[in-house]
Write a structure and sequence with these properties.
Layout lengths: L18 E5 L6 H9 L17 E5 L7 E5 L22 H14 L2 E7 L6 H11 L5 E6 L7 H5 L9 E3 L8 H10 L26 H7 L27 E8 L5 H9 L17 E7 L2 E7 L12 H13 L5 E7 L6 H12 L4 E6 L9 H11 L8 E3 L11 H12 L5 H14 L12 E8 L4 E6 L7 H15 L7 E6 L7
Parallel strand pairs: 1-3, 1-4, 4-5, 5-6, 7-9, 7-10, 10-11, 11-12, 14-15
Antiparallel strand pairs: 2-3, 8-9, 13-14
Helix pairs in contact: 6-8
Length: 512
């Protein structure tokens, strides 16, 4: 029986800018250089080799100069025959997938920067990769990293001349020659002018992590092998939430390890864009994957799996988890992916509580239902529905990334949630709504007095926030507040977006 597949989208659209690919063996500082060039700490950097696996894109911008994109890739290990060789422990088992991702980045790139480690000198992996790049037929610049000053440039560059490519010494950690590197990269770009774009930042201003020290963890991930900070000397402005643009939808994938987030990204985009493995924790960085669907650009932010804090003992995983949770603050809608085979776990409930508490627009996708026996489905559905008892507005979908079952409603529903977040209700509707709420069900008497409602206003959108002015807000009890929210959702057709309903004490009616 053929496997059902979702409708194939058009070609991926990560950016319309020309691209430069950063490639190299593991642990030469590609991610630190990537962060330095884009002036943001997006890629996780660590002294352990093999932290980066999937490719990640960013933009290099300088005032008065051409903007272009750069692509960070995982560490490549090739033998003398251009076949994958066993890499260090961090990428062991992923070598072929990392090479495939890097080759896809190189195929889209106008030029390639081969990053090497000046302190380690020329290694066989460097030589084999250089030979492989020579056959690509594209401009190649060898970037000799970890050269901290001009006094040692000649000594540390000497043996790399054997590769036969132009050389440039830099220090990603300290910023030495990084602006010169930008100019050299621009020399590899096409001559014709390209449209410049603006990329949304992935860093978040506030912590959305599992613990109080998560901010410190996020700061710690900026160092390279020597513990240096990757922050640029010319930091970018704080990222701000983008204005409402109905042609662009940004979706964050969130969930426990091995729930199938990367598989869902591949299935929904029709691309083998993310490395997929049965091994939990395959994805580490928060990776953007964009494609066009009709007249819209949809960007998935695939994130690392989020485990219980008590089980996180690895520093790289701690950085990944913090980045995953922060990604939800920059997405328009979060897709919480759960594993049908695992059922409802305490961590799933905790993630739902976090998202609901923050009023994050989200939906729950229960993956791998093709592996659940039919007779167990009623109990499974009851348990997941019970998990959402206190946020019944959240959509719950059952699907399978592997078979394609249940994928069709995901993107339309995400677009609907985002549109509901920006709903604006007119004054006349608000007045009629308050009258209808009170007519259907008066607030109960509390301490021998019934609360009086004066007027209703919408304070803001995203999420829709409604404020009732009453004589004594302390007399509004929780069950009645839930009734009011449910009524407003029905009247204003805000079915799935988060909503805030507040009651404010006021002794006068509006206009008095």
């Amino acid at each position: 029986m053929p496997i059902a597949q979702p409708p194939a989208p058009s070609a991926p659209v990560t950016t319309h800018l020309p691209k430069i690919a950063l490639v190299g063996r593991p642990n030469v500082g590609k991610s630190t250089l990537f962060n330095r060039l884009i002036r943001a700490n997006r890629a996780i950097t660590h002294d352990r080799p093999g932290v980066t696996r999937d490719r990640m894109e960013g933009q290099v911008r300088s005032r008065g100069k051409q903007t272009f994109a750069i692509v960070d890739t995982g560490g490549i290990t090739l033998d003398a025959h251009a076949a994958v060789a066993q890499g260090p422990e961090g990428i062991r088992g992923f070598e072929a997938e990392i090479l495939r991702q890097a080759e896809a980045a190189m195929a889209e790139a106008a030029g390639i920067c081969l990053v090497v480690d000046g302190r380690d000198g020329l290694t066989p992996f460097d030589e084999h990769l250089a030979a492989h790049l020579r056959r690509a037929g594209k401009p190649v610049l060898v970037v000799v990293n970890k050269v901290d000053g001009v006094e040692r440039e000649d000594e540390m560059l000497a043996e790399f001349h054997a590769l036969g490519f132009p050389l440039l010494p830099v220090s990603a950690a300290h910023g030495h020659n990084v602006r010169v590197l930008e100019d050299e990269m621009r020399e590899m770009l096409p001559d014709e002018p390209e449209e410049e774009g603006v990329e949304e930042g992935d860093g978040a201003e506030d912590d959305f992590g599992l613990g109080a020290e998560a901010d410190a963890d996020a700061d710690a991930d900026d160092g390279d092998a020597e513990g240096d900070n990757a922050e640029s000397g010319e930091p970018a402005a704080e990222p701000k939430a983008p204005p409402y643009d109905p042609t662009h939808l940004r979706l964050a994938m969130l969930g426990r390890p091995n729930a199938g987030k990367s598989s869902l990204v591949n299935a929904l985009t029709g691309q083998q864009r993310m490395i997929v493995s049965d091994m939990a924790g395959t994805t580490r960085d928060s990776v953007d994957v964009s494609f066009e669907s009709g007249d819209k650009t949809i960007t998935f932010v695939d994130t690392a799996g989020v485990r219980r804090r008590s089980r996180i003992t690895d520093s790289v995983e701690r950085y990944s988890v913090n980045a995953s949770l922060k990604s939800t603050t920059k997405a328009h809608v979060t897709l919480l992916v759960l594993d049908a085979l695992q059922g409802v776990t305490q961590q799933d409930k905790r993630l739902v509580d976090l998202l609901d508490e923050r009023k994050t627009p989200f939906m729950v996708l229960v993956n791998k239902i093709d592996l659940v026996p039919r007779k167990l489905m009623p109990d499974l559905e009851a348990s997941f529905k019970g998990m959402l008892e206190f946020c019944p507005h959240v959509p719950l979908l059952y699907l399978s990334a592997k078979s394609g079952k249940g994928l069709d409603p995901v993107l339309p529903l995400a677009e609907r949630i985002r549109a509901e977040c920006h709903a604006r209700v007119g004054t006349g509707q608000l007045n009629r709504a308050m009258d209808e709420v009170l007519t259907r069900h008066q607030p109960p008497v509390v301490r021998r007095l019934r609360p009086k409602f004066f007027y209703l206003t919408q304070a803001e959108t995203n999420p829709p926030t409604f404020v009732f002015f009453v004589n004594d807000a302390d007399r509004i009890q929780t069950p009645y507040a839930r009734y009011v929210e449910k009524s407003l959702r029905r009247m204003f057709r805000i079915e799935h977006a988060p909503m805030r309903v507040r009651f404010r004490s006021s002794h006068k009616k509006k206009g008095e």
